[in-house]
Amino acid sequence: MQGTGSDRSIFFNAHHSPVGAFASFTLGFPGAKGGMGLELGGPANEDVYIGCEDGKQEGLLLAFPFFGKGSEDEAVRYDVEAAAPQDGATVLKSFAHESITREFACCRDTWQSGDLRLSIISPVKSIPDPEGAGEEALRAALVPAVMAELTLDNTSGKRPRKLFFGYRGSDRYSAMRRIDDTTGGRLRGIGQGRQTAMVTDDSSAWSGLAFTLDKVVCPEIPENLVFGLAGVGAVVAEAAPGEKKTLRVALCFYRDGIATSGWDTTYYYTRLFSNIESVAEYALTHFDDALSQADAFDAELREAQLSDDRHFMLAHAIRSYYGSTELLCRDEQPLWVVNEGEYRMMNTFDLTADHLFFEMKMNPWVVRNVMELFVERYSYQDKVRFPGDATEYPGGISFTHDMGMANVFSRPHYSAYELFRLDGCFSHMTHEQLVNWVCCSATYALVGGDQEWSRKQADVFAGCLESLLNRDNPDPAKRDGIMALDSSRTMGGAEITTYDSLDASLGQARNNLYLAVKTWAAYVCLEKIFADLQDEQRAAVAAEQAQRAAATITAQADTDGMLPAILNEGNHSRIIPAIEGLVFPYLCGLHDAVADSGQYAALIKTLQRHLETVLKPGICLFDSGGWKISSTSRNSWLSKIYLSQFVAEAVLGGKDAALSDKADSDHVAWLLDPENAYFAWSDQMVDGKARGSKYYPRGVTAILWTR
């Protein structure tokens, strides 16, 4: 994406994050709207100073526009409209926005204005399974740092010019400091406390602290660069006349000691690095390796031959996903967590089911890790009830909505989110999380070929089948393959789905079309799991339930070919995610199950007709072309759109290039809308405006486009 010649703004925030550190150097939105964020639900909102001395006007510092005005007495100094320097003063100004270009890829984010070029390099790489990997492989994968190169081309210059990289810290608990002081001069850098730092190993550079940037870049008294009261720090280098100078900087993060409450864990990287200084030293020593890996992944994405719009959305989403990832250690064992963006809920299960596709590509072992943790600590047994009836029937195993929030693990067998006696947002998602465990675990076992793990989890798979049956109907003769009873945990309320902020078309769990198809998919996958385990009886039961679910869903189609969002209740809403569940059998290699000539041909043909009918303006398309996941809601979720696009194109064979291209263009416009661009990648868009699920990891469903 270029900054000139395009009607789309280049000024949007993006994550630049290590793997598994729950950290982000967020940058791209003008003003003090980015910075070094650790364990945050949004940008750090720090001044970031990246720039150089002007080549023509002495005393003028030019920087990319990622800083704001300071206190009142500094307003003139930092005013982007400031007049030329007077009486030898040094002035900081922003580059003119129209002079800046940006090239945005998954791993490289490159900015240029005039003769200054900034490239930020973020890692996208697989994490080896810690149970079998060597320490060096883990250090390479988990070093909590991202890299940056700042290059000033002074080859035509007649005088030396400085280039600088710094920030104003925002942590109220730790002062800014110089890294030089704790590394014996091996490194030059600045940081805040033990948590964040910007460091170089360039011996010609210097670092410093001051109240304002100019006093670091152009110090009158160099000895004052150690000023401990200062809030601004920077690393500075100089390009001689005729020189093209590159300053390499490691942007580092570190959280020492016990990192969580409710259950004591530490960051896994603390087993590999003793402090932020050791992080910086390792990152800088292996800078070239990081560049090679980043360029290799960017090349891999280019080979996928996605459209420019899809390439942008996937790259943006992968960055936001990594900004929410966290690899912890408990009892010497790894524990994988993906935090839920602005909400910071931990391993929200309905997000886990969508992160699955990316994780199966990059780190399949983390799927196993999370599924086992749900069984060990976040499963429960319940009873079930028909709506309006207090009679309780056998239920069975299910799983919590999440594992906690903001580094606080919730108590065993309960989530941070789910409350009682509700029928809307914050109610329980018992049935959906049960289906999610089955679909995620089956995908891991079948796609990953880990039949030994399936055998170890055989009792859990069996319990899940029994639990699904009980939520259909306590009388086997009355079962129709879909959910009809609510968990006793709702205490007389009603279960909901992941679409908790939508109306009943997607929010209500019981008789929900989206969840019915996903339940069908769970039965299809269970049939294969039990067949591989040579459990013929359970395989037959799962197959029978899949047939029942398919027949129930198919029978609900109206004369136009559309399915109601809520089955058997006279509902007139229409939804796109009716097709979502097809992804699981497809990925598991059960292609006959999703073929329009296979054993479930009637269901697949019904879903094909449904999709063709609803993908029209006024139903499930916005007038501008974007996908509207429910005909009765203006709240549309990008992550789910990406998933449904894949199913529509790859599984149902319904790709209309013109329709897809128009939709993709509209979806990019949502992300780049000036009201949304501050939040990096966001999910819930109400009339194209980010109203929830901001700074979010879930968009990696887009990885399916590369299959």
CATH topology of the largest domain: Glycosyltransferase
The average pLDDT value, as a whole number, equals: 94
* Portion in helices: 25-40%
Strand order of the largest sheet: 6-7-8-9-16-13-12-11
* Global Rg: 27 Å
Which architecture of the largest domain would the CATH scheme give at its second level? Alpha/alpha barrel
Number of DSSP helical runs: 18
User: Strand tally, please?
Assistant: 27
Approximate shape: elongated
CATH class categorisation of the largest domain:
Mainly Alpha
Quote the beta fraction: 15-25%
Structural class: alpha+beta
Number of domains: 2
The major sheet is characterized as: 8 strands, antiparallel
Distance between the termini: 23 Å
pLDDT < 50 stretches: 1-5, 71-82
How would the blueprint of this fold be written?
Blueprint: E1 23-26, E2 35-38, E3 48-53, E4 60-63, H1 75-78, E5 91-94, E6 100-104, E7 108-113, E8 116-121, H2 135-142, E9 145-154, E10 161-168, E11 176-178, E12 188-192, E13 196-200, E14 206-210, H3 214-217, E15 232-239, E16 243-253, E17 266-267, H4 276-285, H5 287-303, H6 308-323, E18 325-330, E19 333-338, H7 349-362, H8 364-376, E20 379-385, E21 393-399, E22 404-405, E23 408-409, H9 430-448, H10 451-456, H11 458-472, E24 486-487, H12 504-507, H13 513-532, H14 536-554, H15 583-587, H16 601-614, E25 635-637, H17 638-651, H18 657-672, E26 684-686, E27 689-692
Parallel strand pairs: 4-5
Antiparallel strand pairs: 1-2, 3-4, 3-10, 6-7, 7-8, 8-9, 9-16, 10-15, 11-12, 12-13, 13-16, 14-15, 17-18, 18-19, 20-21, 20-24, 22-23, 25-26, 26-27
Helix pairs in contact: 6-18, 7-8, 7-9, 8-9, 9-11, 9-13, 11-13, 13-14, 14-16
